[in-house]
Specification:
alpha+beta; 3-stranded antiparallel beta sheet; 6 helices; elongated
Length: 100
Amino acid sequence: MKGKADLLLHPVRMRIVQQLLLNKPLTIAQLVEILGDVPQATLYRHINLLLEANLIEVIETKKVRGTEERKFSVKIDNLQIPEDEIEMTSQEDHIRLPQK
């Protein structure tokens, strides 16, 4: 299964999206603190995948100690999985447990 469903059903990305939906926009540092068990490098990789898929967006940037800090927010309108993608998904894909 590829596409939006695959992106959203990954456990780490799902947790990122959940936190962004529950809280106000968050920075990477805030997400690292909230998620606790997800290394910062892993978080950056998953954030970039969500950005590329247009599922989250950067809503604010500011300079902090010489680096650019970005705040992320969910693009709620883009979270819906298209019906044709759901129909093309096998029953095994629907019930599978995403791998790390």
